[in-house]
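User: I'm curious whether this sequence folds into something compact or stays loose and floppy. Could you predict its structure so I can see for myself?
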Amino acid sequence: MNFVIVMVDTQNKSMVGAYGNPKVDTPNLDKLAQEGIRFERAYTTCPLCTPARAGIFTGLYPQLAGAYCNNIAPHRHVDLMGTIFRHYGFRSVYTGKWHLDGSAYFGNGQTEGGFEEGWWYDGKCYLEDIGKDMREKYGRCQTAEELKENGFTEENIWGHRVADRAIKFLKKVGQEPFVLVTSFDEPHQPHVTPPEYWQKFDMNNVPRRPNFQAPIDGKTQILQIQREQNGEIEWEEFKKDNYLIQFFSCNSYIDREIGRVVDAVDELHGEDTVIIYLSDHGDQLRSHGLRSKGPMMYEETCNVPFIVKYPGGPKGAVSQSLVSSLDIIPTMLDMAGIEIPELLNGVSILPAIREPEKKVRDHAMISFTRFAINADGVGAFYPVRAMTDGHYKLIINLLETDELYDLEEDPYEMKNVIYDRRYAEVRDNLHDKLLEEMDRVRDTFRSPRWGIRDWRKPRKLLYSLPGGRNLVRGFPFQPIIGGYEKF
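Assistant: Here's the prediction. I'll summarize afterward.
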């Protein structure tokens, strides 16, 4: 069995036609959903780039992997996907955005994660490739005409070159088992595309979400501050925003590059290759008046598009099974017949891929710690943990107001019911599950304070937490049982 992971950056479910609005113009992703399984309840480990990627490529919560915010790399002792699968005889290749080396946004140009030399093509590689003149213009163009004037035609776009390298590998790899990660920066800003895409996208095809600019009562002060700084705007005016138009245009463009990669997989390795598609996290797009991502555990940023095409598996299926991006490595191991070590924090979702109605996990935890190690001005230190069972979502904002949402009755998370007695049992049960999960994995920011809330009888404040770290079994090639010792 081979694996192709296709990932984009900052795309929420409403930007994929298969999730409800085909007019957003993503025909290739819509086709992939028709040929595989579309998961409705897939969650990122963190609504932020580096931590989300840490969860995907280590199989650990980002706070355990060490990359708990932007501009900080995973711990040196943590093995990533490339190292793991190369140990088991797979060719392991990565092309595209990495954002896990702890350096600047575009990376350092060095192959990481245990992946093979020669195929790596992070942002630094791309910028060096296009040369000084284009590099200085990258991200500064504001109109399609400026894109044309500065030479940003299809062959010079990062996403196109990433897809080219993926296709070249698929043609050359032969019969060797492989893991190929194709990681697109798009549709993340600066939304650079071939000029015609900025010209043709019609924002009238994007419906107004019910929680667009919705009141933010009951939500945290830090988000109320962001909302105030963002200012108020009407939907008709927002649709004219150049940033938004370019964002959706780039989203439409990168779908074509994804289609090129998927078509190559189908043509060359379709019978024995699993395709896993996802976004690292979403974007608020002014839902609740909020923008971008960060300490906001709402569906727009946390509930990501996730599609799996499995040879011989169901086609056109929809699964409500709860999934975490932590589950990707365990699932790949399971498909390959390799034992899953208890070191990993996720579970295999193979049962739900074979039978979409199968339930594979009861809860999914999402975390946030800070925006970036070098960006105190963006949200600062703001620890959050959330737990969802797919029906309800509990959000513990350690420093202030907590939140609880009934996702079935209130899918747009408009009403915080944390103090509603009718939800007390559900709330407390989710709280217990959250604390149990933090204890189970020994969350790096674990503290009795997470259990001391003003809406329930608090846990006792202790100096020494009960229990020690149990021996955790890692991969056979890892020393000292996955690098952990009992203490």
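Summary: Residues 242-269 form the longest helix (28 residues). The chain has two domains: 2-362, 368-472.
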